[in-house]
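S.,

As promised, the NAP run. Input:
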Amino acid sequence: MQVVVNSDCLHCLYRLYVNCIVIERQIIFMTELENIYDVVIVGSGPAGLSAAIYAKRAGLNILVIEKEYMGAGQIAYSDKVDNYLGIPAVNGFDLGECFRNHAISLGVDIEDGEVTGITCTDGKIDTAPAGNKLLWKTILSDGTYKLSKTVIYAAGSHHRHLGIKEEDEYIGKGVSYCAVCDGAFYKDKSVVVAGGGNSALGDAMYLADICHDVYIVHRRDEFRGDAATLKKLQERKNVHIITSVNIQALRGEKKLEEVVLSDGQVIKAAGLFVAVGMEPETDILKGIVELDNNGYIVAVEDCVTSAGGFYAAGDVRTKQLRQVITAAADGANAASQVIKYLK
Ligand code: NAP
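Predicted complex:
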């Protein structure tokens, strides 16, 4: 049974009737509700799956929502992960599969869905971390929603674009954001890798085995990526490192043919692999939880955010080091905070 009530008294009603909750001006009796999860985990990368494993093992009623199965998030794009404890030189996709299979073996439910909004069931966001335990409503693109006592938000980040005029026009016609996915299309051709971090260096290493020539173009003369990888690249005959320039324009008839640099150089290249960092998937959280100037959710190691019952794990939160191992650690921390909060 659903009863429409006056919105003024929603809060009191929620507190008064233990057997019902209020959603958008309606009292909904618990018996009619679908599941109310202890925790809904948004994202199935290392942070989300680690949180799922800890929460499930603690006996919580949990659901993981994943946007698109790609093999446990961004990690799937790494050809080789060589710094995850105890599993050296593992392919990123395979490592992600290990995480996923581990979670599934414990009975974790993973559901496909794009989260388009998150709010509290009475529309108010509780800003006190240990405050009034309202229910969270995670809304999906098909209009359905999930209710939960807590949320662990581990949606990760997406590839940053270079921001040059022709970039979007050449996506799929030479411009790519994933060397592991698209590198094979450029066998024996020349390609450019943009960026100076570990992603760019890793992509260049991967492409150097496939492509005729690889040009790394970086805007500064210092690299953020590992010195050891940079040294290996400097030793490769088909790798050319160009620093202190920007990519200014892209040219080509139907597909990419030339990359024009800010110093006037023109590189003949069939591919441009953009590896200039990531941006957090937090657009839907504006006004819900505190974000920093770059859009990351403000949270420290305990993953507690400005909103009670809402936790941020992995690349989406403010932190120094965004790695698989730090994301997995966040998942454990976030789940342990959820357990504490529910008690
Ligand atoms: P990142 O470390 O943030 O590096 C981004 C690079 O792109 C920087 O060199 C930056 O230049 C450049 N950049 C940013 N915006 C640009 C623009 N608009 N135009 C031109 N250049 C631009 O990002 P990442 O390489 O993706 O790495 C992200 C995190 O994942 C890091 O912590 C990294 O160590 C980690 N990671 C680890 C592995 C591994 O261990 N196997 C692999 C990949 C990534 P500036 O340097 O001038 O700012």
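The pocket of NAP is lined by residues 78, 81, 83, 160, 162-163, 194-200, 202, 219-220, 224, 275-278, 321-323 (CB under 6 Å). The longest helix spans residues 324-342.

- D.
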